[in-house]
Design brief:
Layout lengths: L1 H9 L3 E5 L13 H7 L3 E5 L1 H9 L3 H14 L2 E2 L3 H21 L3 E4 L4 H5 L4 H9 L1 E2 L2 E2 L4 E4 L3 H14 L7 E5 L5 E4 L16 E4 L8 E4 L5 E11 L2 E11 L6 H5 L8 E2 L1
Parallel strand pairs: 1-2, 1-4, 3-10, 4-7
Antiparallel strand pairs: 5-6, 8-9, 9-14, 10-11, 12-13
């Protein structure tokens, strides 16, 4: 029953791609008509430059209130004020755009234009997937990093059958003992931290900066992990269960080099 509900729930929903394919990633490429026919999801496109221009026009008092809320809610902000300001503006601009157009899902290309010319979209990713921010609850607008459309589809399907928050992450490493290390450049929802005070907003790693990312280790608990991809043009789903382990917040510094600032799950 839940599966049938999830499949029907998707019909008529809209996914918008901000900026198109990122870094030449073939795994994120899709046939938009196939999504409409197979999943019932409409696919639209939007330009990142329009979002940046919208972000620049936002009221400064609104942005300052948001910044103050972040200072009081999370464990700290170690990002330059100007960079954090632009990151907040991006989030608010995307949220406004999604709301006005009645879109439910999105993917943001981000790299390389956004950080090179304004700021990375990691703060937007985190709060869009949280579904709550300084201005209250919304959406949530499920959002895939780097416009990884099949990654976003994986998140959308999990949410459709569970109605729970979903997390975007890349495979960092698989140890011989079966420990899987997952992390991504900063797009995970803050709800996956054990406590908001465990989240420190750090400067984005230089390869993706300037920008801010939510630095934390995922809270312990059972998880379902899936990935939608295509083999010879046919969709396949890789799916397995796992248990996130409580580890020291210092562990990413040992396992991830200069990208330790990215949110991790072990």
């Amino acid at each position: 029953v839940r599966a049938a509900h999830g499949a029907n729930y998707l019909r008529g929903k809209t996914y918008v791609m901000f900026g198109g394919r990122s870094l030449g990633m073939y795994t994120g490429m899709i046939d938009e008509l196939e999504w409409r026919n197979k999943f019932g999801i409409e696919v639209e496109s939007a330009e990142q430059m329009d979002i940046v221009e919208r972000a620049k026009q936002l009221d400064s008092d609104r942005v300052e209130k948001f910044y103050s809320w972040m200072l009081g809610t999370f464990g700290g902000i170690e990002v330059e004020k100007e960079v954090m300001d632009r990151s907040i503006r991006l989030h608010l601009a995307i949220k406004e755009f999604m709301t006005e157009n009645k879109y439910e899902y999105c993917g943001i290309k981000c790299l390389t234009e956004l950080p090179a010319n304004y700021a990375s979209a990691c703060v937007a990713h985190s709060f869009l997937n949280d579904g709550v921010d300084a201005e209250g609850e919304f959406g949530p607008f499920i959002c895939g990093c780097e416009c990884d459309n099949n990654g976003a589809l994986s998140m959308i399907l999990l949410n459709a059958v569970s109605d729970k928050k979903v997390c975007y992450a890349d495979v960092r490493h698989l140890n011989r003992d079966g420990q899987l290390i997952l992390c991504n450049c900063g797009s995970q929802a803050t709800v996956f931290a054990n406590d908001p005070k465990d989240v420190i907003w750090m400067p984005q790693a230089k390869i993706n900066g300037p920008g801010a990312c939510s630095t934390y280790v995922c809270k312990p608990g059972d998880m379902t992990l899936i990935r939608m991809s295509r083999i010879n043009g046919k969709y396949h789903m890789l799916m397995f269960r796992g248990t996130a382990k409580a580890v020291s917040p210092e562990l990413p510094k040992e396992t991830s080099g200069h990208t330790w600032v990215w949110p991790h799950a072990y």
